[in-house]
Design brief:
188 residues, alpha+beta, 7-stranded mixed β-sheet, 18% strand
């Protein structure tokens, strides 16, 4: 089972890298393997060239597993509070990042596909990355949202599957791009 999940994470990394969402060593991914364990990306690696060896198995109960992504506490908080979440993808999507940088959400009603599939959008106020407080804010402000914009930091998509989280990210990024383009057209 974990080999299949690893391959799905590698596929997500390729798709997201091709769309410019994974600069340098930014971003991190995880997926539940069972009720108590998660595969998570290692700290400080390039996700655009993700390899199976870049994923480590950690216990959800462990607040600071050795070698795990610097955003493990964010992932952990979401897993502990939302049992329906089985996959988390955190990226630095450029168009969604524009909204997150100024503390705004795109209007999901502009695209019927976004409205139907994103599972809600939430803005998480700026809190220092890598902290337990960021995880707590994601839980309290994110509620049941499928896509969370981290103010001045990036974007997190959650899903029942890796594919659902990936599709949510792709659709949310397209939504943001369309809204930014539409604003340009309306101003001309």
């Amino acid at each position: 089972m974990s080999d299949i999940l690893k391959q799905e994470l590698l596929h997500a990394a390729k798709v997201l890298a091709a769309s410019g969402c994974l600069p340098a060593t930014d971003g991190n991914f995880s997926v539940r393997v069972n009720e108590s364990q998660v595969l998570v990306t290692k700290r400080g690696i390039e996700k655009r060239n993700l390899q199976p060896s870049d994923l480590i198995l950690v216990e959800i109960a462990d607040p600071k597993p050795h070698g795990a992504s610097s955003e493990w506490q964010l992932h952990r908080a979401l897993y502990l509070s939302r049992p329906e979440v089985h996959a988390i993808l955190h990226v630095h999507a450029p168009h969604l990042g524009s909204f997150a940088a100024v503390g705004k959400l795109p209007n999901k009603h502009l695209l019927i596909e976004a409205e139907a599939t994103l599972g809600g959008l939430a803005l998480i106020p700026f809190i220092e990355p890598g902290t337990a407080e960021l995880g707590e804010a994601a839980v309290s402000h994110g509620k049941n949202a499928g896509v969370l914009l981290l103010e001045r930091h990036g974007v997190v998509a959650v899903g029942v599957t890796i594919r659902e989280a990936l599709y949510r990210l792709e659709r949310a990024e397209l939504l943001a791009k369309i809204e930014l383009g539409a604003r340009l057209l309306l101003d001309s």
